[in-house]
Design brief:
three-stranded mixed β-sheet, four-stranded mixed β-sheet, about 180 residues, Zincin-like, single chain
């Protein structure tokens, strides 16, 4: 995805922005200011935001900050929903997934994409509940949707549709995940 100083994330779970800082001129790295849920990545003034190598570096820097925030945020949300529903998973891993928001293995291991931090909180919660429903039913048959409806207050299909719409919109406005 293209990153410059107009790039920002502003959701209930995370505010993140890139800024230029003249005092960093000549430095190749960045200064990161982080408080829970709020990240500012300060960069030296860059003359060429279109340079592919520069964009790769910026995308990697973004992914690292999303990973840190996801590790801080998502396991606690997962744990809370699992406890409330009396569901047990083995472990949760935050990954830089490119085609999925999450997955659940037959052993009860849940993987969540660091890119979830770009989504509104209610859709993050939907994905977490979706993966928890797989602890009861691994496929997407009627038993799965019944379990997911129980976790979402009967809103499983509505939230699934909203998540598909969010995903389309994200790819249209931001491009692909690097």
């Amino acid at each position: 995805m293209k990153i410059d100083t107009s790039f920002h994330i502003d959701t209930e779970l995370l505010q993140l922005r890139f800024v230029t800082e003249p005092s960093l001129a000549g430095r190749a790295d960045a200064a990161v200011s982080r408080r829970p849920g709020n990240v500012t990545i300060s960069l030296a003034p860059r003359p060429d935001w279109d340079d592919p190598a520069q964009q790769q570096w910026l995308n990697d820097a973004l992914a690292e900050q999303l990973r840190r925030e996801a590790k801080r945020t998502l396991p606690a949300r997962l744990d809370g929903f699992a406890r409330h529903a009396s569901l047990r998973y083995q472990r949760v891993t935050i990954k830089r997934m490119h085609t999925r928001w999450g997955s659940c293995s037959g052993q009860g291991n849940i993987n969540l994409s660091l890119w979830l931090m770009l989504a509104p909180a209610h859709l993050v919660d939907y994905v977490i509940k979706h993966e928890l429903a797989h602890l009861e039913e691994m496929n997407h048959g009627p038993r799965f949707w019944k379990a997911l409806d129980a976790l979402t207050g009967g809103r499983a299909k509505i939230l699934a549709r909203e998540m598909r719409q969010f995903t389309r919109q994200l790819f249209e406005t931001r491009g692909t995940f690097a």
